[in-house]
Design brief:
Blueprint: H1 5-14, E1 22-30, E2 33-40, E3 43-50, E4 57-61, H2 73-82, E5 86-92, E6 98-105, E7 108-115, E8 122-127, E9 132-135, H3 178-228, H4 231-243, E10 254-261, E11 264-271, H5 278-322, H6 325-331, E12 352-356, E13 362-366, H7 369-378, E14 385-389, E15 397-399, H8 409-421, E16 430-437, E17 441-443, E18 451-453, E19 457-462, H9 465-475
Antiparallel strand pairs: 1-2, 2-3, 3-4, 5-6, 6-7, 7-8, 8-9, 10-11, 12-13, 13-15, 14-15, 14-16, 16-19, 17-18
């Protein structure tokens, strides 16, 4: 809930000692929030004026929120016009949730009007003539034309303000800025709760999205496994054709064979490709068997991995929903407001994805052949540890180490598993992974991602679905 008109009047009365202070700096941490750094003899104070929806208020602030990465245009206007000017007056609109802050300097007088009116809250900078110089956001009222260059139209007076607007949750105590401190404490607690709730929603939403995507992949792998289930049928057909190869001729469209089952001999008709000879038809059946059997093995390994990832995600979801507000606020630093896509200035994409091992050391995984080169030879130091699946194409994996930092056993296992997983040998039960210092790795000229290396050690890695799921969950 925003401050009532009665509460605003009490705060304005309490802020009168600030009159005469000079503006040192102006900050806009949010589009409709301004913080004045005011200097008085021997001390400085921060005055916060907020017109954000549901949080409209003004009070002395104990600290300054972080500024956004890209400053708001209104901040530039306020800094240019108000820095160095003296705060000449602070007054409330009679019976309204709005205040005027008057400033005067060598270049004349200006007024900042703060309309603290819920969802239509806004900040307006006025000249002495009441002409509008600018506003924090475009005019939000459909009944008043408060555009730059126009004469400012104040809020329409209310005949009888609602009773709750005449109430106050705060009472003067005689101490300097006591109401300000109470207002700040109230809204600080509320903003922390709202911030924690928003982070919880964002975290749970992201985890649920990943879970849905993972569940769809799991369904596809189940389908692959079902289709690969015909491998044994092709093997049986191959064995039957092999036993009756002497009776098959090129051009035949089917072969009549006898299958000896537990119930006795059964005559079957097996379709043939008339363009192929007997051995070629036989080889085709065994080729289909081997291909489907290999696909079945890969599908089973992938299924086990996905089920482990799904289990980890379920644990993360339960943990996210049970996190306290304090833990949520500790886990992630607040981000600035989202910018339009074209206004974002994202730097060049890194050639690797980074995650953290079970014991807290960083691990970097190359994104592709050219990116592997960049990771190893441009983003790594000589004593960093380099991993690669032995003898097969795959990603470069690097563990960056600080001065005198040792590679920990858990990191060794995690990095080697990632190197095995991001290689063409991932479907095998056992993968050999070589590891050495980056300074012993040499690039093969003309071939992206190809290297030679020495002083290596080799580690045999078996699939560990839960360990892999924990690591892959960090990559999204």
């Amino acid at each position: 809930m925003s401050l009532t008109s009665r509460e605003i009047a009490l705060v304005v009365d309490e802020l009168q000692p600030l009159v005469g202070a000079f503006v040192q700096k102006v900050y806009l941490p949010e589009p409709r929030t301004v913080i004045f750094d005011l200097r008085q003899p021997g001390k400085s104070r921060l005055l916060l004026v907020c017109a954000e929806t549901g949080r409209t208020r003004l009070h002395i602030s104990s600290d300054r929120p972080p500024s956004p990465q890209t400053p708001f245009a209104f901040q530039g206007l306020l800094r240019a016009e108000l820095t160095g000017k003296a705060l000449e007056r602070i007054e409330a609109f009679e019976g309204e949730r709005a205040v005027r802050l008057g400033f005067r300097g060598k270049t004349g007088a200006l007024t900042l009007v703060a309309e603290l009116t819920g969802r239509h809250g806004n900040l307006f900078l006025l000249e002495e003539s009441q002409s509008l110089r600018g506003s924090a956001v475009p005019n939000l009222s459909e009944l008043r034309d408060n555009r730059p260059g126009k004469t400012y139209v104040p809020p329409f007076a209310r005949e009888s303000p609602p009773d709750e607007d005449l109430q106050s949750r705060f009472a003067p105590s005689g101490e300097p800025f006591a109401i300000s401190r109470a207002v700040e404490a109230l809204y600080s607690q509320r903003e922390r709760r709202e911030s924690a709730a928003e982070r919880r929603r964002a975290l749970v939403r992201a985890l649920r999205t990943r879970r849905q995507r993972l569940a769809r992949t799991l369904d596809k792998v189940h389908g692959d496994l079902e289709r690969a289930g015909g491998a044994q049928e092709h093997r049986r057909r191959g064995e039957l054709l092999k036993a009756h190869l002497h009776s098959i001729r090129r051009g035949m469209r089917e072969a009549r064979v006898v299958d000896y089952t537990e119930q006795g001999p059964v005559e079957l008709r097996l379709a043939l490709d008339p363009a192929l000879g007997p051995k070629e038809n036989l080889e085709r059946e065994f080729h289909l068997y081997r291909r489907l059997a290999a696909g079945q093995q890969r599908a089973r390994a992938r299924l086990e991995q996905l089920q482990a990832e799904l289990s980890v995600l379920d644990e993360q979801l339960a943990a996210a929903e049970g996190l306290s507000d304090e833990r949520l606020l500790e886990q992630a630093a607040p981000e600035g407001p989202a910018l339009p896509r074209r206004a974002r200035s994202a730097g060049p994409a890194l050639p690797y994805r980074e995650l953290v091992s079970a014991c807290g050391q960083r691990i970097r995984v190359g994104r592709g052949a050219r990116e592997n080169d960049a990771l190893t030879f441009r983003h790594s130091k000589g004593n960093d540890v380099w991993f690669h699946a032995r003898g097969v194409p795959g990603a470069h994996v690097v563990v960056p180490l600080g001065r005198d930092e040792a590679l920990k056993d858990e990191t060794l296992q995690d990095a080697a598993l990632l190197a095995a997983h991001h290689s063409e040998a991932r479907a095998q039960g056992l993968v050999e992974v070589s590891w050495t210092r980056v300074k012993y790795v040499r690039k093969v000229k003309g071939v992206a991602g190809a290297v030679t290396f020495s002083q290596e050690k080799t580690l045999a890695i078996r699939a560990e679905p839960r360990r892999l799921a924990r690591l892959l969950a960090q990559l999204g």
